[in-house]
Amino acid sequence: MKRFIRDKQGTAAVEYGILASLIxxxxxxxxxxxGIKINAVFGSVSSTLNGLGVGLPTPTPTPTPGFPTPTPGxxxxxxxxxxxxxxxxxxxxxxxxxxxxxxxAQGICFx
Length: 111
What we know:
The chain contains three helices and two strands; from the N terminus they run αααββ. It is mainly alpha-helical. It has a domain at 1-56. Strand 1 (102-103) and strand 2 form a beta hairpin. The longest helix has 41 residues, at 11-51. It is flat and about 90 Å long. The N and C termini lie far apart (72 Å). The model has no long low-confidence stretch (mean pLDDT 78).
């Protein structure tokens, strides 16, 4: 046991590991604060330029054939599917739901 306590091999590796972890923690905290400050500076510059009328123009959406014209802030959803042909036979899922059942993920109708 005394020999184990006196053994100094590996202590340098442990010290280097502790030092590296401290440097990593310090750099992460500094970079986080720096990122917040840089974001604030860019936000201030952007609002100043927009106030002077120098900001970038707002892009206008270009219509895509077959899709509705997108509205700012609204969803760009595809056009509605056409109504189903009543002469076409129903799928098993449609028959299940028409009977009041629930269609399962495995293709099984639960009534």
